[in-house]
Amino acid sequence: MAIRQLPVVGGPTEAPVRQRKIAIEEHFVDPQQVRPNFGDSFGGEFAQDGSSYAGFNPEFAEVVEARMRDLREGRIEEMDAAGIDVAILSHTIGGVEGIADPAAAVSAARRVNTFLAEEVAGSGGRFEGLASMPLQDPDEATRELKRAITELGLRGVMVNGYSNLGDDKVYLDDERFEPFWTTLEELQVPLYLHPRLPARAVQDAIYHGHPELVGAAWGFAPETATHVLRMVYGGVFDRHPGANLIIGHLGETLPFFAGRIQRAFEYNPYSRRTRKRLQDYLSDNIWLTTSGNFNDQALITALLTVGADHIMFASDYPYDMATDAARWIEAAPISENDRRKICYGNAAALFGLAGK
Ligand code: ZN
């Protein structure tokens, strides 16, 4: 006998509305930047073997580069397909951070930020922007921060890892950046810390023979996580409790390791202490995005560590497909309330975009 099916007796009268999204790690490149072999003439560092950028094969890199330079039809079409209302654009790695000469970094940052503001203004509300910062000159960086936010209307800043200063690598816990952090706090705009290839000495010490691991596959995560830990344990958020930091890729491994890191830190013999635990700074001062890490297990770990109020949607365009990011988050095993916060609500609140 055939299975007797229950009749369909009714359901919602309206189909579910597609989840609105703000995507916040979406990259462009300065159109004046020529990047032979997808390397960069902006002063960044090639991957160890010098033949590819951040471990990408040439076919992949060529398409990424074309997508990167498209600030019109193709990008908007992909945003529409992914249900992204607003993309917050930022300069990709190979940015001003790699310019060793402070004066050159200052003029490059001003030029790139002005270009970005023009693109935002001409986008009909589809783009917002994160400014590039010439941290090689902390006073000028603070000045450019004020100009970018108050005059150009950008929504925060993106910093691609450490900044070159001559032969030095300068990280954001450096005391020279105290006025910069104070200004970020006063302006109430976030700083997005994006990965950068580890310094050449690090590459030579631990990645020799394995250039495929230097970039997005692995090297980005420990480089960026270490930078965050320098800030946390260097007391940046104790001195600037109103500062907001964003990190991508669902936290650059930190949600997974937070408990272990904190426990080991507490018996350090260097008299180094902070007011709160790493987990608390992650919940209070640090936001995570989904960029380039469309993975349920990582998302659940992040949710259990920082909660749904501190996770935001991002695709990492052009390195990833915005449509893949959207399909994943729309089906992820989380509550609809959390999904709404992650896709739209948290970014709208943090960037002052409510109603956009
Ligand atoms: Zn990125």
Strand content: 5-15%
- The name CATH uses for the topology is TIM Barrel
Assembly annotation: single chain
Total separate domains: 1
Q: What is the alpha-carbon Rg in Å? A: 21 Å
* Spans of at least 5 consecutive residues with low confidence: 36-52
Shape: globular
Strands side by side in the biggest sheet: 1-2-3-4-7-8-9-10
Helix content: 40-55%
* CATH class assignment: Alpha Beta
Structural class: alpha/beta
SS element count, helices: 13
Order of helices and strands: EHHEHEHEEEHEHHHEHHEHEHH
Bound molecules: zinc ion
Task: Report on the architecture of this protein.
This protein is an alpha/beta fold. The model is unreliable at 36-52 (pLDDT under 50). It has a single domain (21-350), classed as TIM Barrel. It contains 13 helices and 10 strands. The strands form 2 sheets. It has an 8-stranded parallel sheet with strand order 1-2-3-4-7-8-9-10. It has a two-stranded antiparallel sheet with strand order 5-6. The protein is globular. Helix content is 41%, strand content 13%. Helix 2 (73-82) runs parallel beside helix 12, helix 3 (102-121) packs parallel to helix 4 and helix 4 packs parallel to helix 5. Helix 4 links the parallel strand 3 (127-131) and strand 4 (156-160). Bound molecules: zinc ion. Zinc ion binds next to strand 1. Zinc ion is lined by residues 25, 27, 194, 248, 291, 316.
